[in-house]
Write a structure and sequence with these properties.
Blueprint: H1 2-10, E1 13-14, H2 19-25, H3 30-34, H4 52-55, H5 57-70, E2 74-76, H6 84-87, H7 96-114, E3 122-127, H8 142-158, E4 163-169, H9 172-186, E5 199-203, H10 218-225, E6 232-240, H11 241-254, E7 258-264, H12 278-290, E8 296-297, H13 305-315, E9 332-335, E10 339-342, E11 349-352, H14 361-368, H15 372-384, E12 389-393, H16 401-413, H17 416-419, E13 423-426, H18 430-437, E14 445-449, H19 455-468, E15 471-475, E16 477-478, E17 481-482, H20 486-504, E18 511-514, H21 530-544, E19 549-550, H22 565-582, E20 586-588, H23 602-612, H24 619-629, H25 634-642, H26 648-658, H27 664-673, H28 681-701, H29 707-734, E21 740-746, H30 754-765, E22 768-772, H31 779-788, E23 793-797, H32 802-816, E24 823-826, H33 832-839, E25 847-849, H34 856-863, H35 869-873, H36 880-885, E26 908-912, H37 927-932, H38 945-961, E27 965-978, E28 981-984, E29 998-1001, E30 1024-1034, H39 1036-1045, H40 1049-1078, H41 1089-1093, H42 1114-1122, H43 1124-1128, E31 1131-1132, E32 1138-1139, E33 1143-1148
Helix pairs in contact: 5-7, 5-13, 7-8, 8-9, 12-13, 16-18, 19-20, 20-21, 21-22, 22-23, 23-24, 26-27, 26-28, 26-29, 27-29, 28-29, 30-40, 39-40
Domain B12-binding: 739-875
EC number: 2.1.1.13
Organism: Ciona savignyi (Pacific transparent sea squirt)
C-alpha cells in the first residue's frame, strides 16, 4: 500500500485493458472452456471467461503479459464473474475459490516476470457486481452477497492479489455488500496481516444523466462507499472517455481519494463492437491528465494492449491529480439517490416523522393492513413537503419488524422521487436496524444506540454500524438511565463521543447526539427545566465535541398538551427557534404544520416562552387555561378571513408567507389589471410577489420558518407566476420582453468570476436576458451559445494575463464567423489600452472595455442599439508610436560593495498548513472588498451597512466553523543576477555553481527598471538571495457551490470576495514574518496594518502577471522550485491561473532600493 501510494503521488499509473476483448479475439470454442477437468459437465460452459484461468491458464498469462509489456502498472485478475452467484448460471459454485485463487496466481506470476528494477507491477483482484441487484430487483439478499463476496475475496488474497478492486458498480448496494465482505474477511485471523491492503472502488455511470443503473448520482455514490476508505475511487465501463469526462470531474472534486478512470473504447457500434482507435482513446485520456483529473488510467471494453501502450505514452508527460485536502471538512455526508451535504451553514434539517408506526396512526394502519403503496404515499408527501431525511420506524408489537422494515425500504427504493433523500433507520430493536441497513444503497442514519446496556454492547453495535457505512444517533442514556440534567446530558454524550472516536474510529461528523427532548408542563416541578437543560446541553456539546450534530424528537416536548394541536405546534415552533440558535442541527418533526414564529399570537407566544424557559411557577396553568379558552375554532376562522379586506399587495404578501394558494390567482389578476401601477405583468413579479418571497427568505434565514413552510410559499409563488406567464408571453410578442440577450463568460483557463457574477446580476435586474456560462469557458461554447440564443452582445471576463490572449482568440473567431454583435471586455487584468490595441483590431464590430460593473447597464443599452455602432467606430485612439515617443530612460545604479546583504534563516522550502485565520483578520485590506460591490465612501460603513454586517457575520462563521483553510509555502535560495535574468542556486557555496537550479527571466521597463536590478550581479562576487512564496485560501469553491445550488448569488459573491481578502492578508502576514523572522533584513520593524497596506516597509513581493513581471510563465518555475502542488495542493490551470482562485504567489526582494514598477 505504501509503495503504491508513493507512486501515485509521483506519476499517473496505468491499468490494463479489456480481458473479455482479448479472450474474444482468441475465438475459443466449447472444448477450450471445458478443458480436461470439465469434459462431462452437464451445462454449456462457453462464454464463462473466468473458467479459462483453470482450463487455459497459459492463454490468460499471455494476455496479462501483453498488457504489462504495453506499459500497464496494474493487471486485473480474470475474475469479473468470480462469485458463486454469477457461477450458478454454469453450475460451478463449488469451484469459485479455485477459480479466484488460480486467476490471482496467474496474474501474480505475470507481474513478477515482467517487474524490473525500476518499475514494479501489481495485481488487482477483480470483484465484479454479480448478475443480481439488491436495490432494483432483490432476488438475492445482502447476506447471500456477503457470503459470495467473502469466498471470492479469500481466493484472491490467497492467490497473491496486491489490491482488491470492486468494479463496474451499477448498484451501490451490491458494492456495499462487497466492501462489508472484504472487511469481514480481513478481520479473520488468517488475513489480519493484510488489513492494510488497498481497496479500489469503481462505479459505472450508464448514460449522460450521470447516474448509475440503480439511480445514484456520482456524488451520492462516492458518499455511499467512502466509509471503506478506498485508496482509489472512479469510473469504468458503459461510456467512452469523452462521455465519461464530466462525471470523472464530479467525482474528483468530491473525494480526497485518488481517481481511477478506465473507459470503454468509445461507445459500441451497431454490432456491439468498439471502433475507437488506440490513438483516439489515448488523446482523450491525455486531456484528462493534462487537466489534472486522474491518478490512474486504463481501458475497459474494446481496449487492447495497443490502446494501453498509447495511453501509457500519452499520459507519461503529465503530473498526477493532487487530491483535494478534506473537501468536506466539518460536513455530515449522507445519501439517497442524491447527496445530502450537511455543513455548519446548512439550515435546520427536517427529518420526516410520519413513516413511524408508533407516531402516526394512519401509517401504522396502512402497514398493518399490507397497504404498502398507500404507505409509500405518506413518505412521498413528506419529501414533497420538504423532508430532507425520512425516518422509518416499524416498532409495533403486531408487526414483524425484521421483515416489514426491508420490505418498505425496498419499496422506497423503487420510487426515485422518494429515495432521492437519505433514510433514518429507526428502531429500539437493533436486529430491525440491521435488517434495514442491508437493503439501502445510500448512506443512512441509524436511530439509535446508547450506553444503556453498557459499553461493550454499545461498542459492538457501533462497530457494525460503521461497517455498514452509516451515521449514528446516540441517545443521552447510560447504565444509570436517561439524562435529564444538562450536566448528565453533556457527560454521557462526551463519554459516548470518546468511545466512538478514540476506540472505534468513527468520524466525528458521522455522530449525531440526541440529548433527550423531554416533556414539560406536566405539573411536576422537576420537569420544568427540561427544555432549558436540552438547550444548555446543546450549546456545550457543540462547543466541546467538534464535528458532531444535535437532533431530537420534538413531539415529546408537548406531550402534556396532547389533543391541543394548536398549542403543541406553537410550543414546537418556539422551542425550535431557541434550540436551533443554540446549535440544534436537525429534528424529527412535521415542520409543515408549524406556525411561523413571528405569526404566533403575542399572548400565546409569551405563554410558550414562559413555559419553555420556566419563567414562573404558573406557566403551565397559564398555558393550559389559554388552551381551554381557545379550544373552539370559530374565532380562528373569522380571524383568518380578516386579511381579505387588506390592500391587494398586502394580501399577496400574506398568501406567500402563510402558504395560502386559495386566492393567489384572484389577487395576482387584480394587480396585473392595474396597468397604471403595474404596466407589465413582469412588474407584478418584481414588486409585490418578490417582496413577499423576500420576507419568506428573511424568516427562513432567521430560523423562524422551516423548509416545508418555504416550499408551501414557493408553490403559491409558482401558481401566481404560472398565471402571469401567458400574459408575459403575449407582451413579449407585442414588445420584446427583454431589453436584450447577453452571453457572458469567464474565458478558458481562468477560474475567477466575482466581477462577472455581479455584472450578470446587475444586467438581470435591468431586464436583460443573461446567459452566464460560468468559468473556464471554451471559445466555441461561447460563440455557439450566442448564435443559438440570437445574442445581442457577448461579454468576456478574465483576471489573469493569459486570459487576454484567449479574448483575442475569441475576437478572431467572431470575425472569422462574420458575427455582427458587440464584444464587451471586462475583468481586473483588462484595460482600455489593451482592448483598443490588441483586441479591437481583430474584430471589425464594436469592442468595448468596461471595468466598472455599475456602468455595464449603460454600456450594454448603447451596444444593443445599432445606431450607436457608427459613433463607436469613429473613435480615435492614441497611436503606439506616439506613446513610445513619450518614454524616458532612467537606469538604476546600486553600489553592491556597500549594500548590506542579510542571509535567510534557512535554504529551501517551509510549508505552513492550516494557518490560523483569526491571526490574518487584522491584515485584511477591506478597500478591495468593497470595490467588488462597487461601493464608494470610507470603510467600514461606506454607505451600505448590510454589506458590512453580512461580511462580518460570514467571516466570523468562516473562522468559528473552519470553513476555509489557509495553506502556504515559503522558499529561500541563493541568487545572483546575470543581465536581465536572475539565477537561483540550490546551495549557498563559493564560488556560485555554474549551473543554476532555476532561472527567472526578467523584462526590462522602458524607463529602464528590471527586477534583476534588485539582486547583486554574479560578476560583483556578492552573495545575494531571493525568496519565493505561494499562499491559498482553500474551501471557498465548495462553500460557493452550496450557495449557488440554492441560487444564492449574493452569498456566493460574498464568500469568494472574503476568500480573496484572506489570501491577500495571508500574503501580507507572511511577508511580515519573512522580513522580521525568517529572512530578518528588517527585524526591528513595527508597523500598523495601514502602513503595511501602504508598503512602508523595506522590500517588495512582485507577482507574475502583475506590472513588474507580467509574464505568467514564471509561475511554472516557481511551482517546480517550491513544489507548490505537492506541498499545499495549489495547481496551475492550462492558462496558468492558480486554483483555488483565492491564491497569491510571488518573489521576495530584500534590497532597500527595490520598488514596484510597470513594464511597458
Amino acid at each position: 500500500a505504501i509503495e503504491i501510494e508513493a507512486t501515485l503521488k509521483q506519476r499517473i499509473m496505468v491499468f490494463d485493458g479489456g480481458m473479455g476483448t482479448m479472450i474474444q479475439n482468441l475465438r475459443l470454442e466449447e472444448q477450450d472452456f471445458r478443458g480436461s477437468q470439465f469434459i462431462d459437465h452437464p451445462k454449456s460452459l462457453k462464454g464463462n471467461n473466468d473458467l479459462l484461468s483453470i482450463t487455459k491458464p497459459d492463454s490468460i498469462y499471455e494476455i496479462h503479459k501483453a498488457y504489462l509489456e504495453a506499459g500497464a502498472d496494474f493487471i486485473e485478475t480474470n475474475t469479473f464473474s468470480g462469485t458463486s452467484i454469477a457461477q450458478a448460471d454454469y453450475a460451478l459454485e463449488a469451484f469459485v475459490y479455485q477459480l479466484n485463487f488460480e486467476s490471482a496466481r496467474i496474474a501474480k506470476k505475470a507481474a513478477v516476470d515482467v517487474t524490473n528494477a525500476t518499475v514494479k507491477r501489481y495485481v488487482a483482484g477483480s470483484i465484479g457486481p454479480t448478475n443480481k441487484t439488491l436495490s432494483v430487483s432483490p432476488s438475492k439478499t445482502f447476506d447471500e452477497l456477503v457470503v459470495a463476496y467473502s469466498e471470492q475475496t479469500r481466493g484472491l488474497l490467497d492467490g497473491g492479489s496486491d489490491v482488491l478492486l470492486v468494479e463496474t458498480i451499477f448498484d451501490t448496494a451490491n458494492a456495499k455488500a462487497a466492501l462489508f465482505a472484504i472487511q469481514e474477511v480481513l478481520d479473520e485471523e488468517k488475513y489480519s496481516p493484510l488489513r492494510g491492503i488497498p481497496i479500489f472502488v469503481s462505479g459505472t455511470i450508464v448514460d449522460k444523466s450521470g447516474r448509475t443503473l440503480s439511480g445514484q448520482t456520482g456524488e451520492a455514490f462516492v458518499i455511499s462507499v467512502s466509509h471503506a476508505k478506498p485508496m482509489c475511487l472512479g469510473l469504468n465501463c458503459a461510456l467512452g472517455a469523452v462521455e465519461m469526462r464530466p462525471f470523472i470531474e464530479v467525482i474528483g472534486n468530491f473525494t480526497d481519494a485518488y481517481v481511477i478512470c478506465y473507459p470503454n473504447a468509445g461507445l459500441p457500434n451497431t454490432f456491439g463492437g468498439y471502433d475507437e482507435t488506440p490513438a483516439t482513446t489515448a488523446k482523450y485520456l491525455a486531456e484528462f491528465a493534462a487537466s489534472g483529473l486522474v491518478n490512474i488510467v486504463g481501458g475497459c471494453c474494446g481496449t487492447t494492449p495497443e490502446h494501453i501502450k498509447a495511453i501509457a505514452d500519452a499520459v507519461r508527460p503529465h503530473k498526477p491529480r493532487t487530491p483535494p485536502n478534506n473537501p468536506h471538512k466539518g460536513c455530515l455526508l449522507l445519501s439517497g439517490l442524491e447527496p445530502a451535504v450537511i455543513s455548519s451553514i446548512t439550515n435546520f434539517v427536517n427529518i420526516g416523522e410520519r413513516c413511524n408506526v408508533a407516531g402516526s396512526r394512519r401509517f401504522a394502519r396502512l402497514v398493518q393492513n399490507g397497504k404498502y403503496e398507500a404507505a409509500l404515499d405518506v413518505a412521498r408527501s413528506q419529501v414533497e413537503m420538504g423532508a430532507q431525511i425520512l425516518d422509518i420506524n416499524m416498532d409495533e408489537g403486531m408487526l414483524d419488524g425484521k421483515s416489514v422494515m426491508p420490505k418498505f425500504i425496498n419499496l422506497i427504493g423503487s420510487e426515485p422521487d422518494v429515495s432521492k433523500v437519505p433514510l433514518c433507520v429507526d428502531s429500539s430493536n437493533f436486529d430491525i436496524v440491521v435488517a434495514g441497513l442491508k437493503c439501502t444503497q445510500g448512506k443512512c442514519i441509524v436511530n439509535s444506540i446508547s450506553l444503556k446496556e453498557g459499553e461493550e454492547d454499545f461498542i459492538n453495535k457501533a462497530k457494525l454500524i460503521k461497517r455498514f457505512g452509516a451515521a449514528v444517533v446516540v441517545m443521552a442514556f447510560d447504565e444509570d438511565g436517561q439524562a435529564t440534567s444538562s450536566e448528565d446530558k453533556v457527560r454521557i454524550c462526551t463519554r459516548s463521543f470518546r468511545v466512538l472516536v478514540d476506540q472505534i474510529g468513527f468520524e466525528p461528523n458521522d455522530i449525531i447526539f440526541d440529548p433527550n427532548i423531554l416533556t414539560i408542563g406536566t405539573g411536576m416541578e422537576e420537569h420544568n427545566e427540561y427544555a432549558i437543560n436540552f438547550i444548555a446541553a446543546t450549546r456545550i456539546i457543540k462547543k466541546n465535541l467538534p464535528g458532531c450534530r444535535i437532533s431530537g424528537g420534538l413531539s415529546n416536548l408537548s406531550f402534556s398538551f396532547r389533543g391541543m394541536e394548536r398549542i403543541r405546534e406553537a410550543m414546537h415552533s418556539v422551542f425550535l427557534y431557541h434550540a436551533i440558535s443554540a446549535g440544534m442541527d436537525m429534528g424529527i418533526v412535521n415542520a409543515g404544520n408549524l406556525p411561523v414564529y413571528d405569526d404566533i399570537p403575542k399572548d400565546l407566544l409569551k405563554y410558550c416562552e414562559d413555559l419553555i424557559w420556566n419563567k414562573n411557577a404558573e406557566a403551565t396553568e397559564t398555558l393550559l387555561k389559554y388552551a381551554q379558552e381557545h379550544s373552539g375554532g370559530g374565532n380562528k376562522a373569522v380571524e383568518s378571513e380578516e386579511w381579505r379586506s387588506w390592500e391587494v399587495e398586502d394580501r399577496l404578501q400574506h398568501s406567500l408567507v402563510k402558504g395560502i394558494d386559495k386566492y393567489v390567482i384572484e389577487d395576482t389578476k387584480e394587480c396585473q389589471e392595474n396597468t397604471e401601477k403595474y404596466p407589465r405583468a413582469l412588474n407584478v413579479i418584481e414588486r409585490p410577489l418578490m417582496k413577499g418571497m423576500s420576507i419568506v427568505g428573511d424568516l427562513f434565514g432567521a430560523g423562524k420558518m422551516f423548509l416545508p413552510q418555504v416550499i408551501k410559499s414557493a408553490r403559491v409563488m409558482k401558481k401566481a407566476v404560472g398565471y402571469l406567464i401567458p400574459i408575459m408571453e403575449e407582451e413579449k410578442r407585442a414588445s420584446n420582453r427583454f431589453a436584450g440577450t447577453v452571453v457572458i463568460a469567464t474565458v478558458k483557463g481562468d477560474v475567477h468570476d466575482i466581477g462577472k457574477n455581479i455584472v450578470a446580476v446587475v444586467l438581470g435586474c435591468n431586464n436583460y436576458r443573461v446567459i452566464d456560462l460560468g468559468v473556464m469557458t471554451p471559445c466555441e461554447k461561447i460563440l455557439q451559445t450566442a448564435v443559438e440564443n440570437n445574442a445581442d452582445i457577448i461579454g468576456l471576463s478574465g483576471l489573469i494575463t493569459p486570459s487576454l490572449s484567449e479574448m483575442i482568440h475569441v475576437a478572431k473567431e467572431m470575425e472569422r464567423l462574420e458575427m455582427k454583435i458587440p464584444l464587451l471586455i471586462g475583468g481586473a487584468t483588462t484595460s482600455r489600452t489593451h482592448t483598443a490595441v490588441k483586441i479591437s483590431p481583430r474584430y471589425s464590430q464594436p469592442t468595448i472595455h468596461v471595468l466598472d460593473a455599475s456602468k455595464s447597464v449603460v454600456v450594454v443599452s448603447y451596444d444593443v442599439r445599432t445606431d450607436h455602432y457608427d459613433s463607436l467606430l469613429e473613435r480615435k485612439f492614441l497611436t503606439i508610436a506616439d506613446a513610445r515617443s513619450k518614454s524616458k530612460r532612467q537606469p538604476l545604479s546600486i553600489d553592491w560593495t556597500s549594500s548590506p546583504i542579510t542571509e535567510p534563516k534557512f535554504i529551501g522550502n517551509k510549508v505552513f498548513h492550516d494557518f490560523n485565520i483569526e491571526k490574518l483578520v487584522p491584515y485584511i485590506d477591506w478597500k478591495p472588498f468593497f470595490d467588488v460591490w462597487q461601493l464608494r465612501g470610507k470603510y467600514p460603513n461606506r454607505g451600505y451597512p448590510k454589506i458590512f454586517k453580512d461580511k462580518t457575520n460570514m467571516l466570523q462563521k468562516i473562522v468559528d466553523d473552519g470553513l476555509y483553510t489557509m495553506e502556504g509555502v515559503v522558499s529561500f535560495y541563493p541568487a545572483n543576477s546575470v543581465g536581465d535574468d536572475i539565477h537561483v542556486y540550490a546551495e549557498d557555496v563559493t564560488p556560485r555553481p555554474t549551473t543554476p537550479l532555476a532561472v527567472f527571466y526578467g523584462l526590462r521597463q522602458q524607463p529602464y527598471y528590471c527586477l534583476s536590478d534588485f539582486i547583486a550581479p554574479r560578476v560583483s562576487g556578492v552573495h545575494d538571495y531571493i525568496g519565493l512564496f505561494a499562499v491559498s485560501c482553500c474551501g471557498a469553491q465548495q462553500l460557493c457551490a452550496q450557495f449557488e445550488r440554492n441560487l444564492d448569488d449574493y452569498s456566493s459573491i460574498m464568500a469568494k470576495a472574503l476568500a480573496d481578502r484572506l489570501a491577500e492578508a495571508f500574503a501580507e502576514a507572511m511577508h511580515e514574518i519573512v522580513r522580521t523572522t525568517l529572512w530578518p533584513y528588517s527585524s526591528s520593524e513595527s508597523l500598523e496594518a495601514g502602513d503595511l497596506h501602504k508598503i512602508k516597509y523595506q522590500g517588495i513581493r512582485p507577482a507574475p502577471g502583475y506590472p513588474s513581471q507580467p509574464d505568467h510563465t514564471e509561475k511554472l518555475t516557481m511551482w517546480e522550485v517550491m513544489g507548490v502542488s505537492e506541498s499545499i495542493g495549489t495547481k496551475l490551470t492550462e492558462s496558468l491561473a492558480m486554483d483555488p482562485p483565492a491564491s497569491v504567489s510571488g518573489l521576495y526582494f530584500a534590497n532597500e532600493n527595490a520598488k514596484y514598477f510597470a513594464v511597458g
